[in-house]
Amino acid sequence: MAAERERSAGWRSAWAIGWVSVALLALTLASDVLISPRVAVLTALLGLAPLLAASALTPRSTAWIAVAAVVLAAASGLWNTFGVQYAVHVVDVALVGALSVLVAAVRARREADLRDSRHIAGAAQEALLPVLPEQVGAVGIATRYHSATRTAQVGGDFFDFVADGGRLRLILGDVSGKGVGAVTEAARVIRAFRQYGASEDDLVAVARRVHEYVTNFWDAERYATALFVEITGTEGVAVVAAGHPAPLHVSATGVRELAVRHCLPLGLGPADRVTLHGWEPGDRLLAYTDGLIEARNASGAFLPRGSIEAALRHEDPNACLDELLNRVQAHAGRFSDDLALLLLTNAASTSGAQLPDTSGAAL
User: Fold this and answer.
1) Neighbours of 330 (CB within 10 A)
2) Residue 341 lies in a domain
3) 217/210 Cα distance (integer angstroms)
4) What is the extent of the structural domain holding 118?
5) Could you tell me if 339 and 157 are in contact, meaning their C-beta atoms sit under 8 angstroms apart?
6) What is the CA radius of gyration of the chain?
7) Which of 124, 151, 178 is the last residue of a domain?
8) How far apart, in whole angstroms, are the C-alpha atoms of residue 292 and residue 335?
């Protein structure tokens, strides 16, 4: 969808510049005819039209504009005086037209290479960020991801899950830094979680093993905040917060932030604390990255907590997350940070299915 919008915008831009180039030819021609040669000769300005066309049109379309400019420059001898100055103007327009076609060809080639690179990068980024199922056993799952980089699908935020038997474990977090480096390190955390998420006996051990894995690759300036969640059965949730904001618990009594015991972020120290929380049928748990709570408007005010809670009142989980994204954009005007959202729903009243075993999934 984003690629289609970009192509449509590019076509509209090229169409507009094409018509402006034609209008520039007509305006220059009319001015040259109406103004006396004793005052000014504007023939050389006809070369501006192909130069403008080269910024957006194809080399062929630019060539047509250049040919028209040269023809009009040659015809200017009908109302201007023939002579050396006339010949210089015609040659000047012809040279500028030829240069414009060359510029358009180079630009078109670079744009094609950029589209190919972005297509490959987009496919690689989408492969790094897994697509979570809508339901795993008795747990409904809804996710959203919005990159702060306009040309990227994902950034340094991440989430993933593993399930084996009656246990579901999930991770959501945010790697320090931005750009390609953050994407690479986010993929490293996901890889470690897939390796240890199902093999360790308890959630603290999972967080520790992920920390130990990434510290083999990170220096002292690299770290990641992460939230580890374990759901066993339909009545309890375990949470390990490695320097990450606590999730929001949505129940029949309202919305509250879970009281978690914070540990150091991944890469800075091993996790050593876990908290247990109630998890009733119909309850929801929203895990998020700081792109939600740190979104600021023009005056520097954060997104109000009440606005977040209002969005979570939607009955449909996907509508909740869409509304949250809309409220962030309406408040801040743009996404200044990556934003990942993970909304879990206790669907035990509508599903008694067992959690599938994904512990043997390919890493």
Assistant:
1) 12
2) yes
3) 12
4) 2-124
5) yes
6) 30
7) 124
8) 9
State CA 152 to chain mean position distance.
4
How far is it, in rounded angstroms, from Cα 41 to Cα 33?
Answer: 9
Report if pTM > 0.85. no
CATH of the domain at 220: 3.60.40.10
71 and 203 inside one domain: no
Same domain, 335 and 238: yes
Q: Distance between CA atoms of 238 and 258, rounded to whole angstroms?
A: 11
What SS3 state is found at 162? strand
Residues 156 and 256 grouped into a single domain: yes
* Same domain for 180 and 232: yes
Instruction: State the DSSP code for 265.
Output: P
Per-residue pLDDT of the chain (363 residues; tens, 9 = 90+): 444 555 565 677 888 888 999 999 999 888 888 887 878 888 888 889 999 999 889 999 999 999 999 999 888 888 877 778 888 889 999 999 999 999 999 999 998 888 877 776 666 666 667 788 999 888 999 999 887 665 555 678 899 999 887 789 999 999 987 777 788 888 899 999 999 998 898 999 999 999 999 999 998 889 999 999 999 876 789 999 999 999 999 998 889 999 999 999 999 999 989 999 988 899 999 999 988 888 777 787 888 888 888 888 888 999 999 999 888 888 877 766 788 999 999 988 644 444 444 443 332
Is residue 360 one of the residues assigned to a domain?
no
Q: Which residue has the tokens 């809670």?
A: 309
Minimal CA–CA distance to 32: which of 65, 68, 73? 73
Q: Which residues of 153-189 are buried (b: 16+ CB within 10 A; e: fewer)?
A: bbbbbbbbbbbbeebbbbbbbbbbbbeeebbebbbbb
User: Count of domains in the chain?
Assistant: 2
DSSP H or E run through 331:
helix 317-332
18 assigned to some structural domain: yes
Encoded amino acid at 69, one letter: A
Whose CA is closest to 228, among 237, 236, 239? 239
Give the sign of the dihedral formed by CA 117, CA 123, CA 127, CA 132: positive
Residue 363 lies in a domain: no
